[in-house]
Amino acid sequence: MIIACTNVSSKENFKVMPTDNNTTLLSEQEWKAKLSDEEYYILREKGTEKPFTGKFLMHKENGYYTCKGCGEKLFKSDAKFDAHCGWPSFDAEIEKGKITYTQDNSHGMQRVEITCSKCGSHLGHVFNDGPTKTGLRYCVNSVSLEFEPESTKTSDTMTIGGGCFWCTEAVYSRINGVLKVEPGYAGGHTKNPTYKEVCTGNTGHAEVIQLTYNPSVISYLELLKVFFATHDPTTLNRQGNDVGTQYRSVIFFHNEQQKQIATEVISELTLNQIYKQPIVTEIVPITNFYNAEDYHQNYFEENSTSNPYCEIVIQPKVEKFEKLFKNLLKGK
Ligand SMILES: [Zn+2]
Predict the structure, then answer these.
(1) Are the beta carbons of 170 and 330 closer than 8 angstroms?
(2) Do the domains spanning 16-149 and 156-328 agree at the CATH topology level?
(3) Which of 127, 188, 216, 287 lies in disulfide reach of 204, CB 3.0 to 4.6 Å?
(4) What are 196-243's pLDDT values in tens digits?
(5) What CATH class has 156-328?
(6) Residue 276: how many CB atoms within 10 A of its CB?
(7) How far is the CA of 304 from the centre of ligand 1 (A)?
(8) Which residues surround ligand 1, an ion (CB under 5 A)?
(9) How far is the CA of 7 from the centre of ligand 1 (A)?
(10) Could you confirm whether 139 is annotated as catalytic?
């Protein structure tokens, strides 16, 4: 087994923390429930996988290596190089601050341990014998990582129902990377329904918005985070004073990947007890979608002064969204 254990002193491009960093998102019990035994041993007990065994050692796709513990993007594929040491190696973190550096004097060596700054999971060690111009070699357990391929698509579709579509449209039309927002009806059993028919609650359709977005600017996951932060996913067939199955909380997935991401987001929110009540959001395949009548398009922008609903219901939602997701706004 080759372990490069040269003494590492604090370098200018990262700051070594003097003591152990106890950042953690979950309790030990929750980590145990979330991770496999091997993952728990490495991520939470600072274990090391056997060299030359990890799934990302020879991995060469373009994309992002994310933290197994919390999903945070940690390394980009262009930082990866073959260090012949038995573990995936990188020459830089994706962005300063994503990784925390801690002096590690265990096993009679002086090393610098690297952990995920967001969730505190152990990743491996960093050495200053890297062959590239950063001079660094981040030696990382494959088990500590997940891989997210870089999207080559320039547009993708998402369909969600989070109550009144005037509200959801107002929120999503402000997001950078969202190319088009179409209010409409989906999931029901009648063809070309009218707004009036949908409002009776008898068509089975939900008020939805269908987004066309650029996945290289914003991911499905980020769009879902906005969804869960800007409507109440715990009230069955209701959003505030809007009551009826047409206002149900629903994700209409277009492919298996969307289904999987949506399912994972709901389990994460549940595990972390983000809401006091259970999440009732449906995750169902998209079977139909009908555009709403023209006067619903851009409703909030067109009617913000004439319809009190806009001021009372939509405006606060938009303000909440803009406060929570400043970094996602158009023109930022
Ligand atoms: Zn993490």
Answers:
(1) no
(2) no
(3) 188
(4) 999 999 999 999 999 999 998 999 999 999 999 889 999 999 988 889
(5) alpha beta
(6) 6
(7) 41
(8) 67, 69-70, 72, 116, 118-119, 121
(9) 26
(10) yes
What is the C-alpha to C-alpha distance for residues 248 and 234, in angstroms, rounded to an integer?
Answer: 10
Ligand 1 midpoint to CA 70 (Å) = 4
Sign of torsion over alpha carbons 49, 53, 55, 58? positive
DSSP 153: -
CATH number of the structural domain 16-149: 2.170.150.20
Helix (H) or strand (E) holding 184, with range, is: strand 178-186
Please state the separation of Cα 117 from the chain's center in Å. Answer: 16
Q: Has residue 130 got a pLDDT over 60?
A: yes
User: Does the pLDDT of residue 188 top 60, yes or no?
Assistant: yes
Among candidate residues 70, 139, 167, 310, the one labeled active-site is 139
Ligand 1 center to 31 CA (angstroms): 12
Tell how far the Cα of 27 is from the centroid of ligand 1, in angstroms: 14
* Number of helices and strands in the chain (H, E): 9, 18
Q: Where are the domains of the chain?
A: 16-149, 156-328
